[in-house]
Amino acid sequence: MPWEDVLKQVREVMDELAPQAEITNIDLEGPLVVVYTRDMEFFADHPDIIKKVAQTVRRRIFIRPDPSLLMDEAQAKDEILNIVPEEAGIRDIYFVPETGEVVIEAESPGAVIGKDGQLLNEIKKRIRWAPRVVRAPPLESRIVKEMRAYLKLVREERREILRNIGKRINRPPLSGEQWVRVEALGGYREVGRSATLIMTRTSRVLVDCGLNVAVSDKADPWSGAPYLYVPEVWDASDPEKPFKHIDAVVVTHAHLDHVGLVPLLFKYNYDGPVYMTAPTRDLAAMLLIDYVKVAQSEGKKVPYESKHIKEMIKHTITLKYGETTDIAPDIRLTFHNAGHILGSSVSHFHIGEGLYNIVITGDIKYERSWLFNAAHNRFPRVETVIMESTYGGREDFQPSRREAAERLKDVVMRTYDKGGKILIPVFAVGRSQEVMLVLESFMRNGELPEMPIYLDGMIWEATTIHAAYPEYLNKDLRELIFQKKENPFLSPIFHRVESVERREEVISSSDPLIVLSTSGMMNGGPVLEYFKHWADDPRNTLVFVGYQAVGTLGRRIQNGLKEVLMSLGGKPFTVKVEMNIETIDGFSGHSDRRQLVQYISSMNPKPERVIICHGEENKCIDLAIGLHKRYGMETMALKNLEVVRLR
Amino acid sequence: MPWEDVLKQVREVMDELAPQAEITNIDLEGPLVVVYTRDMEFFADHPDIIKKVAQTVRRRIFIRPDPSLLMDEAQAKDEILNIVPEEAGIRDIYFVPETGEVVIEAESPGAVIGKDGQLLNEIKKRIRWAPRVVRAPPLESRIVKEMRAYLKLVREERREILRNIGKRINRPPLSGEQWVRVEALGGYREVGRSATLIMTRTSRVLVDCGLNVAVSDKADPWSGAPYLYVPEVWDASDPEKPFKHIDAVVVTHAHLDHVGLVPLLFKYNYDGPVYMTAPTRDLAAMLLIDYVKVAQSEGKKVPYESKHIKEMIKHTITLKYGETTDIAPDIRLTFHNAGHILGSSVSHFHIGEGLYNIVITGDIKYERSWLFNAAHNRFPRVETVIMESTYGGREDFQPSRREAAERLKDVVMRTYDKGGKILIPVFAVGRSQEVMLVLESFMRNGELPEMPIYLDGMIWEATTIHAAYPEYLNKDLRELIFQKKENPFLSPIFHRVESVERREEVISSSDPLIVLSTSGMMNGGPVLEYFKHWADDPRNTLVFVGYQAVGTLGRRIQNGLKEVLMSLGGKPFTVKVEMNIETIDGFSGHSDRRQLVQYISSMNPKPERVIICHGEENKCIDLAIGLHKRYGMETMALKNLEVVRLR
């Protein structure tokens, strides 16, 4: 149905079902049909009506107050501050015009609500925005605040973008034989540059668009990138807008090997939507901006600029877990918890009207961790699963979280006893927060002596973003964080390294200490500074707690590299690796072999086919064979550039 | 190397190696670099020079006389007729400007050549064209003559087309990672609409572009067509020239399921080359023109017009078996005998400089037949074979040619004894000539009583094209044909049905007789007229000697269909099938299971991978499994729309 007809039909159904609702406008906003009304209460009292309209037109309907009703934002803010008593401890007030809501972050939410909701009702009556009160997160996130400010700044521009996206989604699907294909564009039989293309007769959806940061071949500007230049993705006839046939981009989580080249699409004027969860958007923004900054400061070529990251944010549509949304005329997307990092998603694609269902796991942890619940594996329907296999090899059995923690304790203790320092390379997002929680807990219980833990390279920033999205954390942690006194992240043992001077102090300190620093695979970042100075002292320990990809310095050191050529003050010098090297498995955000197999075997319903990706070649093949032998389902280890027809 | 540089380099090497040769021009002509000279004899005396130049610039070099030297064609023709005595029996003289040759077709070639080549030398000296004398074919082919006339007519236009093709072939290949992919576009896990796309980083080559004539769904204009609308083939941004990214089209043989939609490419302004053998071009022209004519007369929609067939011919570059040619910056093609029908080819693709080799068998007969040698399976290198599997099922073992002939004799004899008539549906090209040879031989030897054999629907035309290309036939038949007295095709038992009146006479005749008529699968053509009138008489016999595809009337009758709804004089009426239905295996132009397996097992060198196509789904899968189990090589039964990466 063309979009004009969709709007017309919504109008007709509305007129029939709710003639008394004062509807002032009906518009497209990305995947949503937004109905503006002067009578929000009518719809609050009649929730069935929206459901019925949605079912009739088969679209997601959103009711929103007519903007003319809402008080000006600055004025409304003043009103709220007047009404609410000071002891409520309001920390932030921000407006969400998309929902007609105003969010009030307060230290004592009860004091904002008032007895029997009295104050809240008063606020509502005065400003007409719908107030939502939330407990102020214990940590302030600079990124989250900047994101809100930026989105406010580009609100008008974004409205137009979303309307165009809506028009595109609502174009009629092509008739004739219907089929479903999937192409491996990157990250198949390898780790890095993840990218998968879903193609139907009508639509093309790109799932992830990662960058392999371990690869940088200056002769080939596309090295480290997925195969985006193939005609299935790149329209060579329109060099101004080569990605124009892509209906939507879906990002499963914020790591660079999944989101690192999404801004490149915008460099080439992609103007479609990017779907991800809100925490993925914020974490991705942080990591991408840092990536560009670091690369530029190191004089490396970067395939895009900061402004393209901003374009990405401008075109991002956030979805919550469990929220089903049309992203193309014949494709619906639903995100679910993946357990890997904050906001990470298992993506379920429903194609056609009951034609086919694909689940793309992204990176998954199928075990409850200190941070998240285990990855979701219950779906209404699923025929094909595309699953990661980072630890999918037949030998890849990992210790439990508990055992891993015990090993870490041992390593720290032994190094402490020798008077050495401990360096732990970590991704800013994911592993660092888990290791922080474990170390803090041991020190609090006295199982480890107290010593300072230094956080270098965006780890603190990432941690604050976790606090801003408590609904994405598991229940235990959520409670810990909001019990302010026991909030582990606020423990005084943690110190942020915020300047080069501070880093030098830490490096030359003679006290026992622990450093958590990025990058997690040692292919850049401040971790190298610590390593440079500490590597030749056998009392010190380097502890790997995460996956080290082929080609990274981390992997080579793990494999026994004894000398590393680095530079010091611009001059090349050779670092001798005399420090103790430890690898502690079990902290990974990836499922081990057993968990991957269990994820599939306990999936409900059972998939017909599993495509293995995101693992070294032998692991992909081994897991594919293993699953096929044990469960009889069709399995395949696609190669990059291959296309399989699912239906 | 850009094409300008190629020409420059040829010029430089020529100047160095052959400064005395009077070179007047160097130009591109499709895959060739053509060097025009005033001194043909110099090059005739120094054949090594061309070889050296070719090796240096890595291009095929062609030496041609400067046109200003050659006598005007009409005048030259008169000169030849003056010089050659009448008893030579000159039947045709035609000029080939591409080679600077004049071909003299004569009944007594010796009389044209003269004692010690005296006359020939004289001709050459006078007209400057290089005379080539060939024995006049015993049958005149209308199609072959028309083809020569047409090519002469469009010679100038063609020169420009070939120059542009040459420029495109000589563009520099893209740098960076090199890979090879193959896409199944049609005819995979099915028979009909064969189409395969070879993709490299630089180039795209379409091998076959067939039409499934058994499918005609009016709701879907692309029914019966390969999946040409996918972005790998079709550039949606340029609706004027959507096929512009295709570097070359290769046609393996003239049947409609392989060439039927090549003209469609020209309807959409494709302007690249089409490579095939000369007999494939002539047969394809005949079959395509007939297809359009018949379809139009039946009021069916045809996806293109006659003028697009002409465009195809204009863009066709013919290759001989064993002639290696650049068809893209990084792809070289060599055709070899496939044994299936006249001019049918096994295509060998050499990609990059030693990067990869693919063999696409097209349809193959791996057994010497009455017409052709067994399919070629010796190559310099081959990693992947894409092979047909029409009779690839585990039960598909066929009798030998000899046994098949004996069975045919029995069936004819029994029907003759009952006083019935025999109807044999055949493809015009391939089976009909074999059946003619067998029947003629039995009647000549007295093993069958003499009775008239009527040829309806282009069988005669097709037969004459065989006589025009004796070098494509096996040696025995070639000798038979040229021993005029015994030429089986000239036997008086054969009668052409050239008019509706004649057909009606044959239909109502009460004498014993045999009809060979198209179409071979009874999905149209004059065979239906005979069937309509003869089907209800149990004395008559319908004999299938070729493959009947799923969905065709032939297949349904073979499966026991007892009533067929047809039309007679525009009115629907029901034909009761009472006639005797016989299927004689062993005449097929396709290899049976044993021959397919032998073709691969005796291939030299052994391929690493075999992709199975052109067979019903279960046959493709069964053959893939069988070959893998027996020889351990990787095998796959791709689905249409799938892409596999070979390297």
UniProtKB/TrEMBL annotation, chains A, B:
Q: Where is this region: Metallo-beta-lactamase C-terminus?
A: 589-647
According to the record, the residues making up region (Beta-Casp) are: 395-588
- The residues covered by the Beta-Casp domain are 432-557
What one GO molecular function would you report for this record?
A: zinc ion binding
The processes (GO biological process) annotated in the record are: DNA-templated transcription termination
Name the positions where Zn(2+) 1 binds: 253, 255, 340, 363
Q: What CDD domains does its record include?
A: KH-II_CPSF_arch_rpt1, TTHA0252-CPSF-like_MBL-fold
Q: Which residues form the signal peptide?
A: none
- Which SUPFAM superfamilies has this protein been placed in? Metallo-hydrolase/oxidoreductase
Question: Which residue ranges are recorded for the region named KHb?
Answer: 71-138
Q: Which Pfam families match?
A: Beta-Casp (PF10996), KH_TffA (PF17214), Lactamase_B_6 (PF16661), RMMBL (PF07521)
Q: Which family does it belong to?
A: Belongs to the metallo-beta-lactamase superfamily. RNA-metabolizing metallo-beta-lactamase-like family. FttA subfamily.
Q: How does it assemble?
A: Homodimer. Interacts with RNA polymerase (RNAP), interacts with the Spt4-Spt5 complex.
Give the protein's recorded name: Transcription termination factor FttA
Q: Write down the species.
A: Aciduliprofundum boonei (strain DSM 19572 / T469)
Q: Gene behind this chain? A: fttA
